[in-house]
Amino acid sequence: MSQEKFPQEEVEKLKVLARVEETFPDADACADCAEARKKSGDPTDLCRTHLKQIYGI
Length: 57
Ligand SMILES: [Zn+2]
Known about the structure:
By secondary structure, this protein is mostly helical. It has helices at about 10-30, 30-40, 50-55. The structure holds zinc ion.
């Protein structure tokens, strides 16, 4: 048996990471994200749309 399988958990984690990398450049250009960041004081905060995008829902 030389076939290595990623545990499903790891695969899901990698998918989330890939989505985060895709989403953040969009979020930086998003007015709603800018607003959310201003409100929370968290420079990595996201609007609902982009949060959904990251969580894939
Ligand atoms: Zn956004």
